[in-house]
Amino acid sequence: MAKKVDFREATLRQLYENYGLTTADLEWEPTYVSKDEVSPPERRTRLPVKDWSKFEDPFKLFFEDYVRVQAEKETVFHDAIRLAERFGEARRINPRWVAGMKLYYPAVAQSEAEAHRGHLGLSRHSPSPALAMASFYQLLDELRHAQNDVHAMRYWVRYLDELKNWAQLYQNFWAMQVFRSLFEDMATPSDPFELVFHTNVALEMGYTNLLFVAAPTAGAANGDRVFAQLQMSTQSDETRHIALGQATLRALLEQENRDELLPTLQYWFDKWTWRHHRVFGVTGIFLDYFAENKTLSYKEAFKKYFIEGYIQGLLEDFEPLGLKPPRFLDDIIKEAENYQSHQVWKLAFQYNYLNFFETFPPTEKDKAWLREKYPNWDQVVGWYWEQVEHGDPGIVQGLPLICNLCQFPIVYNPNDPDHPTNGSFHLRTTRYNGRTYYFCSDGCQYIFEHEPEKYAHAKTLTELVIEGRAPADVEKLREYMGLEPGWGGNLFEKPIWKEWLASQGREG
Amino acid sequence: MSRFRSFAWFQDRKRPPSEYEEVTAFFSTWGIPFLPEQEGSPLAAKSAQPFLMNPDTTAIHEFFTPHTVLKSIYWEGFRDPHQIYYKTYNQMQWEAEAALDRVLNTAEEVGHFDRLPRAYRDMLEATWPPLRFLEWAVVKAMQEVAHYAPSSPVDQCATFQVADGLRFVQRNITFSMRLGLDRHKDRWLKDALWQPVRRLAERIMTIRDWVEAVVAANLGVQEGLLHGIFPAFTASAQAVGDFVFVHLLKELGADLQRHVDWAQALVDYLGQDPKYGEANRAQLAAWKEFWGSEAEDAFKLLRQALVGEEGVRG
Amino acid sequence: MTEVRSDLRLELMAGEEAEAIARAVQELNPEAKIEEYPGLLIIRVPSNTRMVIDRVRVEEELGRPYNLRDIQTIMAAFYGYWKETSPDRWVLEWMER
Fold this sequence. Notes:
The complex is a heterotrimer. Chain A is an all-alpha fold. Chain A is built from 21 helices and two strands. In chain A, strand 1 and strand 2 (435-439) form a beta hairpin. In chain C, a hairpin with a 2-residue loop joins strand 2 (33-37) and strand 3 (40-45).
């Protein structure tokens, strides 16, 4: 096929072959000011890396390419929203899935905003020009992701009220404290390279495929094309970020003095794999519970993306260089495969009178699927749903003990902290500076004891209520969290569910 | 008339907010509860615990320490006069880049570059390629602005200015490559013509007050380039019929104009603050005066090289 | 951990470009396997081989010019390392040991 070579293609090839011109060549040693004034030591990494030239960006990006490719992705996503609006799709989406979307968007929007901000700092003070350039494009991408989550909320707020308060919900809602704790921890890394570990390595390599490839299949199966397209489009950007994470790990572990770096890198690997498991395990409830039409189970998605992709993929290459499997990996696997989504869903239902999104008991059809995918489901939570089915409202009154690290309620059953169906939820305590701290697990306790001064000052919502800094009265607490009357509760008892069934020609 | 449906912080408006407004504000919600006043914020004074990590131990105190001497009762209230957000930015710049490429392709087809006079090419070699380093310094300053400004709308303006800076640098590089212009780094580091500009660039990268950085970079450097240097380049190009360079300057100039516009809008916004406006105006005027004249001084030799002594005085 | 290395894998949003890329990969690596799911097309090759996406072959399969950079608009996930992402070829492989 005859190919016309044009100026743009010719120059992009030249740029690709002379990549240093757009990266290292732009840097120079200042002589009119000091290097420390341009890049203060407290903003730079303290990792004793000797050879920065080892950083290479596999996706050599250029501005023109970037805007072209991104403009196309944006067109596809925004057209999906426009057509969904034009043809009134929102009203035809299964309300079970819609309930999940209410929870999803406010939480995830802020994670992207944190990553945007973090990469501003990393790229500005990166000693490797190639890493700085890849980080530049990442910070643009993260702005895209945060903003597109808000675009989705803007679309949804035309149909439902709950998202109008999303900023306040993120700040004050009880379950959002879990996300806040994670994202605020991520926004205040001890070192710019801790940012690369918690975002590019642990989150983007470990969990985004679960969130943005597996969960979209469930969205699509339940009528929500906007969510499906948004997340898959987001994920196409993530592939670049994953490459940055891989390149960083390789460059760090290929240093001659890697033994000096390993203790820090291992701690970050251990800490962030654990923290992300605790929080992004919540993805499980989208696949296993919110979705009426199921695609794959959390256990299956976890195996495919976390175990095969992240753990095996990483450790194959980096274990020989000294990186060990993440410290709490066995707990993580056991929990994800057996307990996590079930415990979280049960917790959400137990507090449904405090939620802004609906939850509901699993139906017979749900239970049949759950029992098939999780053979010990009855032992873990089935007994609880049995009680609910027999008339027990299933709710817990009074606020729970909440983990002082991850802000997750410390859930265990029946009333035994060491019961085998608790997964890795086991009550642990630590005394620090005259105060007792409670943890949901060994993982959270380990992190706290490593960096107590960072985490010790926060109070859980329960502690705030006890101290009188947040309201104890249920109605006032709902208001404080940003809820309005009628929000939350059991979906199956609400008119929207009955209307939906009628519209589908189904019976209650 | 039916009420429009939007986020809570727009509910008391008479008309629905623009898409720009709805998707731009409140990314940095964690910063807002700390800042004094912030009367317009839906989160002001409503959170018992604005931040969960201990501010005294985090290595970077950006959430708790103001990074400007200026004050505002509502940082999130700033608006970009061009209302650019992610969706519109990429489309706009892709169209602009494609238009520029078509001009460049035409130039190749008609053998334009090979017919440029030697003297003109030599003049360009001394004056065009090293500008990439100046714009790189502006990029670095803008990263700090985006990082520290407690305002999503300001963050966004600065972030897209960073992207524009990548565009400038890469167009500077590819145009220089095509014309075979050489020794750009040497000139930047050593030529007498460039030392005042390099000194300015290095100082820009050390400014720690993010509002001062906006004034210095945009109302100093970018304004100086746009009105003091670009017209001189354009005149030289027109004199030899280099329509390509004229087009390139027009394109990059449009980006510079947006930088000047949003900075001026920020200056106006802070100057009109109901409580701190007067104090802000005094400081902003001082910065503008200082950096405006620093930029003019820094560009003097470069302007001279482009328009001759007469042109500089005239 | 298993002893067997996981496959090199590329997950693409389904459509004609994904199909053309899959066929182009298969031409150069007969051990390539294709899996299709709603909205997703997955290309796998054994871990001890490489996945090479050659622009000329993709264009032949597609019947029109194709910029390999456009893979970014449809790429949902990958497992391996990108050894090359030049205008003419993209190559995915595991690290040498």
